[in-house]
Design a protein that fits this description.
The chain is of the alpha+beta class. Helices cover 44% and strands 19% of the residues.
Length: 276
Amino acid sequence: MSEQPAKQTTEQIEDLIRDALQSWPLYRELRYQGGSSARVPTLLVLFCDLCGNQEIWETTFHQFEENTTGFGVKEYKCRNCAGRVARFYFYWARQDDGRYLFFKAGQYPELEERVSLPLQKELGKDLKLYKNAIRLRNFNLGIGAVAYLRRIIENHMNDLLDTIFEAAQLANMSSETLKSLEQVKAGRGFQDKIEFAESLLPPRLRPEGVARPFAVLYELTSIGLHARSEEDCIAVFDGCRRIFEYVFSQVHLENEAARQFKTDLANAPKLGPSKT
């Protein structure tokens, strides 16, 4: 359950509902305080399999239409191709304490276990486990999703360190920082490996506005995680997933581009001195 402590404006409520429809798992509850005339948003950003990209999807409303009581359904059409329709089923009601409750009860097409091609290649035999983790998350089963994700990250932690190590080398990081890699990889301490990965990641590869991108991975090592709620674990899973996919996809691609650039420079034709 996601609690919103202060009263929101109609625009803020629509942003909350938009986020819930676009990416929240089924039955995750949103509770908020605000105007009773709020509606689901007119526009969403969703993946369109026909277009092959994230696109803007649009719905229409009847005059005076509101959706703040009982179950409702709404259809959205891709504005780019007009060839795909997404349907959302939701529940929306006012509670005894004056707040409003909203949750998504179903959607079609369903939230997919979409994994990028570069990440599929890196995961190998663990791809099925990763899709299982995403599926559990999409059905609001955060504890199970985190358990799967921790196993996958543990299985690939040394590969992750190698990827970051290469990025650090390409960024000319100091030898003192780099020399401990094999020792850390040989150890069994998951938290030690995360800390080392944090120290290796060059500043230019850190997501904008995120000083410590690996901090959320510490949640996977927390003993207290075993006492967390399903929703707490959903938040942990989403944060860890973004970091995991960023390192294995974005950093890996940047490493390849940097290697290719160095190769191209080395193979560039050498010009002799000018004869003028």
